[in-house]
Amino acid sequence: MTQNLDDLRLRLSKIRENLSEVKKTLEAIALDEASEADAYANMAREAANPDLRWKLFIIASDSILHREIAWAIIRAATEIQLLARELAEYQPQETQDRLAERVKAHITIETLAETSYDDLLKLVEPGTTLYRLFKLLKEEEQKHSRLARHLAEKLAKSTT
């Protein structure tokens, strides 16, 4: 048990270190994307050809999303670093029976989130960054559902 806990702490420490590097790189990317979004938006305003204007608009829109995604990942990385530090130090208090119930309850939440992303996919232009992002998030919710089911089964077996 101690070895597993030491391994977990080491993995969490490495994640915190890596996320520090990720945040530095993403900050530079976010600033570049902001500049790109402005440049393409200005070009779209100046374009007389509707097709050219549309394509410049798509690039500007995608750049805006890229910028905001980078900033969001920076914020999320900070939160993940805090969670990793907390988990490395935290001693579990909850019974495994209660944990199994809670994990099982969240399977439904994951399924609802997946359905919500399906609905969002119908509202955005296919092929855009936003479309691909919603598709990725839907796939992530599917993955979470599978993991939660597996964990619920594993916890149920360990408590019986």
Properties at a glance:
2 domains; 4 helices; 160 residues; flat; single chain; mainly alpha
Could you provide a short overview of the structure?
With 160 residues, this protein is an all-alpha fold. Helix content is 89%, strand content 0%.
Q: Would you kindly provide a written description of the structure presented here, covering whatever features stand out?
A:
With 160 residues, the protein is mainly alpha-helical. It folds into 2 domains: 1-91; 94-160. It has helices at residues 2-46, 50-89, 96-121, 129-159.
Topology as a string of helices (H) and strands (E)? HHHH
Judged by helices, strands and strand pairing, the structural class is mainly alpha
Shape: flat
Number of helical runs? 4
Question: Main beta sheet, described?
Answer: none
Could you tell me the strand content as a percent range?
A: under 5%
The unreliable regions are: none
Task: Please state the CA-atom Rg, rounded to the nearest Å.
Answer: 21 Å
Helix amount, in percent? over 70%
Count the beta strands.
0
Summarize the SSE layout with pairings.
Elements: H1 2-46, H2 50-89, H3 96-121, H4 129-159
Helix pairs in contact: 1-2, 3-4
